Task: structure prediction
Amino acid sequence: MANQGENNIKLGVFTLAGLLVLIFSFYMIGKNHNLFGGGFEIKVRFSNLNGLIAGNNVLYSGIQAGTVKDMQLINDTSIEVILLIDPKVGSFIHKDAIATVGTEGLMGNKVINIQPGTGKSLAISKGDYLQTRKAVSTDAMLQTLDKTNNNIALISEELKGTVQRINESKILELLNDKELSPVLRSSLKNIHEATANARDMAVNLDIIVKGIRKGRGAAGLLLTDTAFAGNLNNTMQKVSSVSDQANLATIRLNTLIEAVSQDLSSKDGSLYVLLRDSAVAGQLKQTMKNIQDGTAGFNQNMEALKHNFLLRGYFKSLEKKKKEGQ
Amino acid sequence: MDSIDKIHWAFTDRILEFFKETGHVMRFTGHFFSLGLKPRFEVKELLTQCYLIGYKSLPLIGLTGFIMGLVLTMQLRPSLISYGVESELPVMVGIAIVREIGPVITALIFAGKIGSSIGAELGSMKVTEQIDAMEVSGTNPFKYLVATRVLASTLMLPILTILSDAISLFGAYIGVNIRSVTSIRLFYTQVFDSLSFGDLTPAVIKTFFFGFAVGIVGCYKGYNSSKGTRGVGSSANTAVVLASVLIFIIDLLAVQLTDVLGLN
Amino acid sequence: METPIRSSTTGKITGKPEAVIEIEHLCKRFGENVVLNDFNLKVYENENLVVLGKSGSGKSVLIKCIIGLLKPDSGKIIVLGKNIPELDHEDLDKIRTKIGFLFQGNALYDSMTVRENLEFSLRRQWIRLPQTEVDAMVKEALDNVGLPHTVDMMPAELSGGMLKRVALARTLILKPEIILYDEPTTGLDPVTAREIDNLILSLQKKYHTASIIISHDMNCVKNTADRVVLLLDGKCYMEGTYQELEDATDENIKQFFE
Result:
């Protein structure tokens, strides 16, 4: 009995240690589930959750930003998901950020990925709705790519024709203005080049899309077949270079078209004055717009393709190789 | 015909015996709740028993927990590698330990150590009339011996399980680091990231029942020990066997219940 | 300590000695085995009553019924004015503080020291005693049996005779009015057995207790008995002094002296 007191101390330490470990565990779990320390709710509407459940993580640009708190069906096509966002991360999320349903790893838990928007809009606050984008499926993407491709071909054809016509119409030569004429000529030449580029690009893309189509049926094949991987490698390189080209072309086109259309629409503009032919002007304007839309759409598709999970691995390994090469 | 009759009777006897025994255990349990939890608690004896049952079991349970975590990690690794998810090793081990292996293995070791010691102690006290002596001296032996031990094992097993889980996870960390390198921070972040309250809470709650089962069975077997040293031995032995079976039955019920409640 | 306060539970103020235990028509059976069958007995204060009987004749059952460890099937057991079988747990515990019980196997708590063994019954009481008083009582009890030096030893370290003395000290520590001895000399060598006999006698004289001693050891009976009851077939077969018993010609009695 003399060491009763000592035993009680040992017992107390033992019990406290157990309780501390328990409390620590609960705290850690609670922290991971944002149960303590506030956080605010924002909402997102999806048409398909792909098996997302309450408690799943919300990632913002890949870092833990919160958890899925609740979800409910709003109507037959949309489900409202309530996200609990950590205020520390939340202050960096802007209103135009885009939420998608994704997967942690190859077969891990579902997650909500929030991709940063342009950063121009305000930071989100409690109760805000985030924009969503349906996770792009390769199939749908290839379809739009195909369409875009055709559009580009058409547009460039059209544009070429218009430019040709303008060139051939000799209106330019009639101009007395010696300074304007060369400028306009070089502009038109640029357009010409750009459309040629776009056409080349369209041809390339066509090949690429067909290539992907062939392997599309089996995702496993796409990932594992080494022969196909080689193909894919080439293809993707092409896609990359084409997309770079497209980017360049788009930028050039954009500035050009903007200049041209401004010229066309203002009554003082030299082209407007030159052409006088309002029908041609209208057509040209429409064409320009088409090109603009087409290139923008194409760019978006390229970006989506890069983020698609099947190809993401490829892009990652490309980066790795690059690093290793260095 | 005679032999068949004999077998028949032996069989029905067995069944009747089983139900009789079950009834006795139930009555004993009821007695615990009606009498053992009434005031005039034997606080000092309860603390002594908590010390003996809880603190003194920690080295054994800690050692087995550590080995379990280590071995489990090393056994799981090849399978996970074949799926290419070696990085999920801490997650797998963490969930396995916290949800199932920690509580059950700890409870089984506990049943082996504590169930037998309670059974043997009370059995020998019964045989040497120490229980009668206690009763004669104005102490309720049920309260002094049974209630304290049952309460102590009910309260101590959860704590032992939690500590054993922690030690097991440490073992698992070592196991991960035998073949690859992980920082302890990454390891425990991964483990806690994968855990939810639905993993931890039912696992902790069920250990109370495990502890109660071990205590009540050990006390019942010891308290009703038959005369002689053989009776003491058999009460210690059957206490362990019965407690182990009960642990699995409770575990089965617990998993069904958590499933129905949607806690996982 | 000369004359302990005696509760006059029966309320009689006659010259005759009071009966502290009255057993009437006591019956106890275990299954088919009838152990006590319409057994009657009176024990008076200041008296050493020896219950003699063969093994399995129900002597132990008798005293376990008296202290309430066993419940009789029928009959009255009035101890200090209270009918034991009818008492609830609390009253039973109260009356038990006035009854000492020396177990055949001593029943010392082997996980406790001698001091803790002795203190155990004290600490169980309703009135908490100060430690100095507890120490004094432990010392007195151990002095009575001549073993003050064993106070911090474990029961396992003591010899058979010492264990019996410590058990006796534990029985006596509450200064009971009645002491029930269950075969106090069984398993001891004759010399130690005589020491225990003498101890029982001297303590009985010192504390003026009434005692029931269960035995089949004729030396013990001879040394300690004021009165002897022979238990046979669940009944009181014969009652008398040791001398009367020795002189009897009955076969059933004679066999105890062989």
